[in-house]
Specification:
The protein is α/β, with parallel strands linked by helices and 209 residues long. The protein is 45% helix and 15% strand. It has helices at 5-21, 25-31, 49-52, 75-87, 102-107, 116-129, 131-135, 140-160, 163-170, and strands at residues 37-42, 60-65, 92-98, 176-183, 188-191. Strands 2-1-3-4-5 form a five-stranded mixed β-sheet.
Length: 209
Amino acid sequence: MGKLDNLLNNNKRWAERVRHARPDFFLELSLQQKPEILWIGCSDSRVPANEIVDKLPGEIFVHRNIANVVVHTDLNCLSVIQYAVEVLRVKHIVVCGHYACGGVKAALEAREHGLIDNWLRHIRDVYRFHREELDALGNMEARYDRLCELNIIEQVSNVCHTTIVQNAWAAGQELCVHGWVYRIEDGILRDLQVSASGKDDISDIHRLR
C-alpha cells in the first residue's frame, strides 16, 4: 500500500528511452546546469513547466507554489530568483499562471480554508485593487479568468520590484520578465504582453535609485 513501485518502474523505462535516443544525455546533464529561463508557476499538477513548452530537463529552472505568487517576504521564492539571476544568469523569468486556478477560486470564496487563507490573502489583495473591474463581470467564470490574469500581472510586477532583478538591470545584465497564462482545456499558452526588461518598464515609486 505504501509503495510506489509503478513510479520507480516508469522512471527506469523513461531513463532507458532517453539513453537510447541520446546516449550521453545524463552524463552531459550531470556536468552542468545552464538554463536560460526561470519559470515561476503554479503547483497545479496539470501544468508541468518543461512539458508544456516541450523542453528537456536542464533547460528550465523552476519554482512553483499555489497560484504562482511572488511575495517579498517569501525567502524560498526570493532565493530561487537570486540563484537563477546571479548564479545561473538566466535571460528570462516567466511568471505563468493558468485559468481555472484553484487558488484563485478559493481566494474569492467567502469561507475559511485553513492555513492556506494566509497565502490567499495576496490574491485577495489583487482582487481588492481591481474590484470595480472584476465586479462588473457578471459571469463568475469570466471573473475567475480575469483575476487569474490580473494575478499574473501583479506577480510580474513583484518580480521586477525585487532588488535582485533591479540590481541585475543596473549592472547591464540581459534579463526580461514575462507574464503568461495557460489554458488547460486546449494546452495553449498566451502572452499577456506585460514583459519588462529594464527599470523604465516599472513604476517610478518602485524604482531603486
